[in-house]
Each structure stands twice: as structure tokens, then as C-alpha cells.
């Protein structure tokens, strides 16, 4: 049975989701894709390899399930494809702010 995403009750949940660099990288990758591009990517694109290293294992067992359970992403475990979830729009304003801050620090 598919997981039912819960509704965001407060800013705390959104900040908690973005508190880990791996989750920020996943959400930012989905956010920065052009609407004309596919809003998905394969796990290999995120980790840079197709081997099961510690980072990949952590993504598979901790971060991707957490994002999928919250409804911010859809994760096809069998094909290892990540897409925007039904609640992705709720977190976009924080992602915009994060990206703006990262750009400001680069300049």
C-alpha cells in the first residue's frame, strides 16, 4: 500500500527535512531542474557512482525514505528514480531562500 503523506503542521518539519546536507542536495536537485526537463533523476546521478558505498547506503536507508514518507519526493526503489512528491511545493519557498543565500555567499 502506498505511503500517505502527512500535511505540514509547522515550519519545524520543513526545517528538519532540510537540516541534513544529503536531503538538501536531493531537494535542491529536484528544485533546480527546469520545468522543461524531467523532474526526476536516478540515484547514481546524486552519488556519482553506481557502487554501494556508505553514502549510497545512507541515502537508501535513511534520507530517501524520510523524504518519501513526508511526501516531498516520490522514490521508486526498484528503478532508483526520484521525482517531486505531492508536497514538494510546500518546501519550495525555503529552497528558494537557501539557493539565494548560497549564491550570495559565492559572490
Describe this protein's structure.
- With 107 residues, this protein is mainly alpha-helical.
- It has a single domain (11-100), classed as Arc Repressor Mutant, subunit A (Orthogonal Bundle), CATH 1.10.10.10.
- The protein has 5 helices and 3 strands, in the order H-H-E-H-H-E-E-H.
- It has helices at residues 11-17, 21-32, 43-47, 54-70, 88-106; strands at residues 40-42, 73-76, 81-84.
- A 3-stranded antiparallel β-sheet has the order 1-3-2.
- A hairpin with a 4-residue loop joins strand 2 and strand 3 (81-84).
- Helix 2 (21-32) crosses helix 5 (88-106).
- The longest helix is centred in the C-terminal third of the chain and has 19 residues, at 88-106.
- The relative contact order is 0.19.
Largest sheet: 3 strands, antiparallel
Q: Structural class, from helix and strand content?
A: mainly alpha
What's the CATH architecture name?
Answer: Orthogonal Bundle
The side-by-side strand order for the widest beta sheet comes to 1-3-2
Which strand-content bin applies to the residues?
Answer: 5-15%
CATH class: Mainly Alpha
Measured between the Cα atoms of the first and last residue, the distance is 47 Å
Shape descriptor: globular
- What value does the Rg take, in angstroms? 14 Å
Helix and strand run: HHEHHEEH
* Residue share in helix: 55-70%
Count the beta strands.
Answer: 3
Question: What's the name of the CATH homologous superfamily?
Answer: Winged helix-like DNA-binding domain superfamily/Winged helix DNA-binding domain
Mean pLDDT: 79
